[in-house]
Specification:
Layout lengths: L3 H31 L1 H4 L3 E4 L2 E5 L37 H14 L18 E3 H14 L6 H9 L8 E3 H11 L11
Antiparallel strand pairs: 1-2, 3-4
Helix pairs in contact: 4-5
Length: 187
Amino acid sequence: MRHPATTAFKMWAVMTLLTGLIYPLFITLISQIAMPRQAGGSLIRIGDQVIGSELIAQSFKGNGYFWPRPSAVDFNPIQPAGGSHLGPTSQKLKDAVKEKVKRWGPRFPPELIYASGSGLDPHISLETAYFQIERVAEARLIADPAQLRSLVNSLAEGYKEKYVNVLLLNHALDQRFPDQLRLTTPR
């Protein structure tokens, strides 16, 4: 007669091998075959150089670029993603919001003040992109801001609520207006 511990150990070893090694390798193989770009992190490349991922926000400095939502993790995907965990009674949160409101003025999209839940959201709403058009146009010496609005609209995603990927928008901005960026102060 077998000892119950022997049977339990064998079952543990089989399940560990099955769920910890075989299943993940099988799923990885299927994803690499079926959708290699997405399985590789949806990386955006210029030639051989990776400029970022469509899935993770990046910080853009200077007035000549569209800015993403603030990041509670300082746009570092290595850190555990998440919000700031500051509650409505936090003085630190109140001070940060006051500072940002002072910078943006009385009418601003809340996305420019508050970080997303993950702190790494790569998208902003069209409203937030439109709000930044005047600043970007001025910094890039673009006489007709309607050109930027057209660029934003051409990259819009979504059905009911439209949004735009900030990295893709800034990449398209550099492609369309490559030599029109004057020196600007970082945000």
